[in-house]
Amino acid sequence: MTQTASAAKKTASTKAKAGTGVKQTSGPKKARTKKKQGQAFPFTAIVGQEEMKLSLILNIIDPRIGGVLVMGHRGTGKSTTVRALAEVLPSIERVKDDVYNRKVDQFIEMEKTTKGGKSLKPEDLTIEDIPVPVVDLPLGATEDRVCGTIDIEQALTSGVKAFEPGLLAQANRGFLYIDEVNLLDDHLVDVLLDVAASGRNVVEREGISIRHPARFVLVGSGNPEEGELRPQLLDRFGLHARIITITDVERRVEIVRRRREFDDDPQAFLKKWAKEQKKLQGQILDAQKLLPQITMNDDVLTDIARLCMQLGIDGHRGELTITRTAHAFAAFKGDKEVTMDHVREISGLALRHRLRKDPLETLDPGEKIERELAKVLGEAEEV
Amino acid sequence: MIAFTDIVGMDLAKQALMLLAIDPSLGGVVIPAAVGSGKSTLARAFSDILPENTPFVELPLNVTEDRLIGGVDLEATLVKGERVVQHGVLSKANEGVLYVDSLSLLDSSAVSHVMDAMSRGEVLVEREGLSEVHPSKFMLVGTYDPSDGEVRMGLLDRVGLIVPFTTQNDYRARRQILQCNIGDKDAEDTRDELRMLRGLIDAARELLPQVSMTKEQMQGLIQSALSLGVEGNRVDIFVIRAALASAALAQRTDVDEEDMKLAVKLVLVPRATRMPEPEQEEVQEEMPPEEEMPPEEPEGEDEESPADTPDSDAEEEQEETPDMIEELMMEAVETELPDNIMNISLASKKKSKSGSRGEALNNRRGRFVRSQPGEVRSGKVALIPTLISAAPWQDSRREERKRKTGRASKTALIINKEDVKVKKFRDKSGTLFIFMVDASGSMALNRMRQAKGAVAHLLQNAYVHRDQVALISFRGREAQLLLPPSQSVDRAKRELDVLPTGGGTPLASAMYLAWETAKQARTKGISQIMFVLITDGRGNIGLQASMDKDAPKASKDEIENEITGLAASVNADGIASIVIDTQMNYLSRGEAPKLAEKLGGRYFYLPNAKAEQIAEAAMSG
């Protein structure tokens, strides 16, 4: 996640308003708020729903893809899959106990601006490896917990205004997951849009003024029949995976069997799947290493641009996302060059939600993309 | 309090509760029943058959978010000088029962939290500087009267057992039986009966891990779910668990036909979206049962879970194929249940509201804009700003108090009245647009197209205003609610695709239906409602005729009177209206403007209206 450091360097600064000794809490506080989550069902044991699984994996390989929106029927394993994600994520380096999960250079840069020019050296800092954070944003979260707020205990005991970072800080360089994202309160959506666009969280309220880096892969899930997503938020998601009820009886029997096996003895089940989990993790790591070496021919780029144009997609986020996703997909497959075959596999994911929404259109967006893609490719072959 | 065993009738509901007591992972029981059927009495008696000291927490309908999820206990926090956490209702119900009476009236944000807790088994408290996880594994028991509206499908999806709704015609009789029965019995009998039942359930719970079903039975149940068009894969687990629990209750370790029938009745039928198709066999042949396992299975592992598919069983019961089981189940669905079951469950799905947001009336939620000085009792205390304003004065106040009282203050924090800040909320509240589209006569197709376009247009902007749209079409004998109040473009699309046109004009029926829909929306907190009536003529079918096809034909005057009466009621209820007249023939105009006048609404003459124009008229109206 190299992009986080450079962007945050430019923007991140922590300033204190005159006279109100604002400081940040760190270290011990973290331990208190640490959560114990229940055992998650293993990612690799989830039957079917390949679209969703692939989207998540591609986002691990390249977080710049911009997250996934998973929409589909009730009871099809949306949240199970996302919550299973944590177990296959690689780890990241951060300054020990840093509440913002910052890397060394980022930490030094930020602290320099706060502590009045006192510069830290990398040698002064301890580094630790932590698993990529997956932060759950529940629907009932209040804005102060999401953005961070004053530390009440410090305010009570010593009358000092101290900043206690929120979920956005915890999610920096990791994943932020919102189940039932289409039911999220408007004001939280506003906050998310703001932060997702700028990559930093600015808290200016109740006498506190703080800014800190908050770059995360946004993962949302929901059932489209419960309500629509705000178009601006929809556009923020890099990929859009759709999931449906599995109708094959054999596979459904398998789902039930695995679920019951897991419920009966989670430990044994996890052990049984440990090998698969390791394998996938290895695959992801390999893909991450391969990613910078992957090349893409200009012809492919032209075809992508034409596809987006013919589909009438506004802006350039479509092209950008499809290109990045195709790179990550090639890396996942172990291929060094992106071809239109790769593009074909992921174009639905990257573009489905960017087509102009016409409620009277009966053609499925996926089919429409496929059709236009065939046209683009057909022409390409003639030339 | 009336004991579980003393309640007469409601047999299916009782069975459902017993299955839940045996296997709490069934998630819950929802009991739809009419007023006076004794549903709440039964639900409250559920404790009787649970192990002692199982928590039984009732969720009040007016619960606030912080009471539901938990948060900072202000009083204790101020006294102790450190954060004191107050557990919410969801956490208090952990390892026990969460009971909601009138489940369909629970507001949508509370429903979302209950759903979230059920899928996680815990509550995430991320509020007011607090970040905690409280365990929250509970059985949800909900009762409601379907005439109050429906329960959100997303919530029902997490509840295993839904008791089929039967109209309780004989509720008075039942109440009599109940009363007689209690009179006859003495307390000791009741106690013995209860003890016996509890023993039975304890034994079943113990036996449950040993109960198994054949693979064919499992497939049969899953095929039944498919035939009935049940959405999602979660139900499979519920239907299988229900059958296993039923076998355990009968002290058997294998599942028989009756167990499966009960499971289908309680799990699948209430979620059915279609009747089983008659040409099932052909469909089955097209999909030969494949024996291949999904590719995700790890290699070299023993993939058979002994409890699920003992091979020996499968061989012994060779004659019982999944198809046969499914057929048996479908027969049970068709023959054993009362005739009206299928209709009601299908209808209730249609009626179910989606995406409702009842924020409009609640002034304690929505966006917390800022804090302002105020009385503690007048609103929600904004804790943090209050503390901030108090913090700087602590030293001086402590000294002052010491000077006055002669001893040091014990409280960690001295807060004066002027420190108190209360939260100021701003809330967005949407409008429900109810479209009534005249689908009768020759120009119906054109009007339908306009209406669809307008609905689409409004929905495109729905997120911004939190608006919802409902659509009623009227033709032939009666009006039909095509799209219940919704914000979902997907859903609107699906419902609007096929629409029949032509026939009579049951305008009164449409207005009545719209009025009913409006009243239901009001109970869920949507206060602004607008009727958009798109028509070119007058109603010619009376309300009587819409409800009863044998009713004598109403006269012109009677119909006119009905419409006038309805229009006045709508107007009196403060529902705004616009009437869009699409009559091409200029000369025969006159009915629509009159109607607009009666409704106290605005009138537009747009014979060739474009969808956008209609949408704009509705927005401006």
Automatic annotation (TrEMBL), chain A:
**Gene3D superfamilies attached to this UniProt entry:** Magnesium chelatase subunit I, C-Terminal domain, P-loop containing nucleotide triphosphate hydrolases
EC number(s) given by UniProt: 6.6.1.1
GO MF terms, alphabetically ordered? magnesium chelatase activity
State the UniProt keywords alphabetically: ATP-binding, Bacteriochlorophyll biosynthesis, Chlorophyll biosynthesis, Ligase, Nucleotide-binding, Photosynthesis
User: Which SUPFAM superfamilies has this protein been placed in?
Assistant: P-loop containing nucleoside triphosphate hydrolases
- Where is the region Disordered? 1-38
Give the catalytic activity: protoporphyrin IX + Mg(2+) + ATP + H2O = Mg-protoporphyrin IX + ADP + phosphate + 3 H(+)
Role description: Involved in bacteriochlorophyll biosynthesis; introduces a magnesium ion into protoporphyrin IX to yield Mg-protoporphyrin IX.
Sorted alphabetically, which NCBIfam families does this protein's record hold? BchI-ChlI
PANTHER family per UniProt: MAGNESIUM-CHELATASE SUBUNIT CHLI (PTHR32039), MAGNESIUM-CHELATASE SUBUNIT CHLI-2, CHLOROPLASTIC (PTHR32039:SF9)
Say which family it is in: Belongs to the Mg-chelatase subunits D/I family.
Official protein name in the record: Mg-protoporphyrin IX chelatase
The primary gene name is bchI
TrEMBL record, chain B:
| Domain VWFA, first and last residues per copy | 432-621
Q: Give the E.C. number(s).
A: 6.6.1.1
As its record notes, the protein acts as a catalyst of: protoporphyrin IX + Mg(2+) + ATP + H2O = Mg-protoporphyrin IX + ADP + phosphate + 3 H(+)
Coiled-coil segments on the chain, per record: none
This protein's pathway: Porphyrin-containing compound metabolism; bacteriochlorophyll biosynthesis
One of the entry's Gene Ontology molecular-function terms is: magnesium chelatase activity
Q: PROSITE patterns of this UniProt entry?
A: VWFA
Report biased composition (Acidic residues) as residue ranges. Answer: 278-321
Q: Which residues form the signal peptide?
A: none
Q: What does this protein do?
A: Involved in bacteriochlorophyll biosynthesis; introduces a magnesium ion into protoporphyrin IX to yield Mg-protoporphyrin IX.
Return the similarity comment: Belongs to the Mg-chelatase subunits D/I family.
From the Swiss-Prot or TrEMBL record, give the protein name: Mg-protoporphyrin IX chelatase
Species name: Prosthecochloris ethylica
Q: Which gene encodes it?
A: bchD
